[in-house]
Every structure is written in C-alpha cells, then in structure tokens.
User: What shape does this take?
Amino acid sequence: MRVTGDLDVAEECAQEAYVRALQAWTRDGVPERPGAWLTTVARNHALDRMRREVTLRRKLPLLVEPATVDPSDPADLDPSDAAVPDDRLRLVFTCCHPTLAPEARVALTLRLVCGVPTPDVARAFLVSESTMAARITRAKKKISEARIPYRVPDRAELPERLDSVLTAVHLLFSTGHTAGAGDALVREDLCDRALHLARTLAALLPEQAETGGLLGLLLLTDARRATRTDEQGRLLLLADQDRTRWDQRAILEGLTVTAGALAAGPPGRFTLQAAIAGVHAMAPSVDQTDWPRVVHLYDRLLAVWSTPVVALNRAAAVAFADGPAAALPLLDELATDPRLADYPYLPAARADVLRRLGDAAGAARSYQRAMELTANAAERAFLEQRLAEVSRADGADAAPG
Amino acid sequence: MAKYAILIYEDQARYATMSPEAWGALVDAHGTFVKQVFELGGSLAGGEALAATTTATSVKGGGTVTDGPFVETKEALGGFYVVEARDLDHAVEIAKLCPAPFGGVEVRPVVDPTTNPF
Assistant: This one.
C-alpha cells in the first residue's frame, strides 16, 4: 500500500500474490519465508501496474494526477529498500486502527492481509455477502477519506493500538478454531493465517510481552486441533481428547514463549490465557490437571479482563478444583447476566455440573437450552448425544425398581 | 496537511449550573488548547463557540420555521474548531486535548472540494 498509495490497488496486488503463491508453492514447495515472498510478489505486481498506468496517463494527459510515488525514480522502484515484514505489519495496524468499527477490523484484516475472499469473510462472520461487502467498503472508505495513516504506531500509542491488533488476530484464530456455523468445527486456513500473524507480531515487537502471550495462546490451543473432533467430525471435550496426539512441538514452543511473556512483567489477558492453556497442555489427564492453579490464573485474568465469559470459564474450573456443588451457585449468578442470555456455553456448563451432581432432569433441560442456542452442527451433535445420555439415566432413575 | 473539524458535543445543562470560577478555568483551557494545536505541529483554521440550543431556530426542508435545534439530544453541538493535521492519528492526538468536560468531541475530516468533488 505504501507503494501504490491506494487501498484497492494494494488489495488487488495482494490477491494476485496469493494466486501466484498457490501456483508456485504447489509446483516448487513453500519457500523459507512465505510472507516475504508474498509481499515481494505483491509489490512487483503493484510496480508493474503503475508502470502500465503511467504509460496510460501519458496517452491521456487530461487524466494526469499528481503521483505520490514517481515510478521513474529508481529509489521508488527498488524493492529491497523496504523492511518487508514491517510493510505487512503496517497493513495489519491500519486494518485494526482503533477508529474503525471493531467488527470491521477483523474483516479487513482477513480481506486485505490474509487475502480471504469477501464471501468467505461473510461466512466466517455469519452475515450476508452484501452486508460484509458494505462493511469492508465503509472501512476502506474511512481509511482513505479520513486519512488513517499506513504505519506502525509510536511506542506511546502502542498499548491501545496493539491491543486492537492482538484482539483481531485472536478473533481471526477463534473464528477458524470454532466456525460459527456450518458443518466443520475447524477452519484450518484461518487458524494458520492467525498463527502466522501472531508469529510476525511476536518477532517484530518482542518487547511487548502480550505479543508472546498471544502467540503462546494460539500455539497451545492449536496443538489440540487434531483431537478436537472424532473420525465422524463430532466434538470431543478436553476430557475425551487423545492427549498423545497433541502436537508436542507446538506445545513446547507455546510453553516457551508463554514463559517468556510471564517473566516480562505483570501479565496481560493473552499471556494469562496462554498460561491457562499451558496448564492443560502439561496435564497428563483431566483428573491430573492442576485445577487450583487454573482457578488462580482465572482469578488473575478476571482482574485484568473482567468479562462474563471469563467468569463462566472460571466457574467451570471451580467445578473441577472444588467439585460441581461449588460451581453451581457461580453459574446461577451468571445466569442473571443479560450478556450471557444467548450464550450456549452457559447452559452447556450448567448441564454438565447438574449431570455430575446426579440431577439428570435438570441437566436435560439445560442441554436442550444449549442446543437451541448453538449454530454449529458439530457442537449441536455433541449436545444431542449428552442429552440422550442424561435422558436415559433419568429414565432409569424414574423407572420403578 | 488535511482539515479536520473537531466538534464539541456536551451536556448543556451542566453549563447552566457552572460556577463563575469553573467557567473561567474552562475559557483558559480553551486558550491553552489553541496553543497546543500549534505545539503538536497542527494549525488552527477556524472555530467558534455556539450559543445554547435554546437560542436555536430550525428551518426544515420546505421552509418550515420552528424553534429549537434540528436534532434534540442531551449532548448538543456547543462549538467547533477546524484544525489542519497530517492524518487522522494526528487530528485525534490534537482532539484528545480539546476541552469538553461535560461530553466529548467528534473528529470529522473536512471535504476538500478540489480533490473530493461529490
């Protein structure tokens, strides 16, 4: 974008680079630095395009506008002058600018940084293609008309802006990790792109501990990717996953970067979530998990990031650390929070606690409620199975001896 | 450099009950802000304080004249600055220093009719 000075041209060039990458990588294998490869291709394509446009403008003198980049100036044409990863980072920071609507930030990142086609972005966010196209157009228009600069912010601005970028990359990963709708639970392409961005951020801003926290969180979560569903594509809970199939290399790397982020000072929300994922990754089984440590980490997470979803996860950890009876009042309290009124994991967690307390009828009601709220087929199938189990148990209890 | 309007939206009722000392302090704050615009590398291209919305008259499309502001809201437009800034980040950096104790400000790019004909 620094080369073209125009977001739409930059986007087209990035698209072109992805198409060429797919062709070349299928032929020759993935290069050592795929990001640099992409940026170089996109850049060369942009320069080609501008040379052609310059020729066109000479022939149509009436259309000549002042060019911000002079393609006849060798300094502007030398592709080696720019720090390649910074260019991508500039684009990420532009897409995740705090003055853009939060829902537009991830969409723009997907579209412009990852080259995901608009229909796929729309599917990832459960909105119609036209809604998403309008959202992306609005955001691009604001970038150009309000002059949102294409730059990595100064150190003083970083905390506010970096948080927005980290949130967008995390959302990108989450969108892939549990697809909001559709039949497949995981969209691996989105997870891979999010991981790649997290790696870039951690490499370029190592002094910002939260970049390491986010990378650790994504690595530790992604290490379980292969075991999250069974052969039929059904959801498997942490308790039912085959831990021997967790990606040990990803876990080791995740634990290392998370430890680094924890050592850097008071941890932020990504580092604390990574630490929680790390406790799970190190546990040989659910029963042998250090649940008191998980609850402690959730306490610290709530202190820096107080959301009802974090409180719900803490309650689920309490159910393991102190037993289901201790978690029930916490879940009852959360049920009064209007922000969780349509959140399927609340009735699902409640159902699980009631099931473990032997209240099969109550559990069945909660499983039913959770099923009504989820839009993901894999999740619904899982809840259906659990519902059938507790209903059988309930029937057996009710049947006269 | 591009022009940005910094529109000051505040709860006017708070001005009505303000002490003379607080009012004086606010006037001083605006004086300081004007200096800060230049210190931050921007420049001031205009700005006015507006009288209370109770003095407003609306002329609707078609020529109907009524009393009151065009849009009734608790937080009303009370004044504005027009600054010149490098980009939105620079304009927001300036706008953060604009006094608006009973509300906030909105930053809007000013359309340049020579490059942006609608």
User: Anything to note?
Assistant: The interface with chain A takes residues 2, 86-89, 92, 108-109, 116 of chain B (CB under 8 Å).
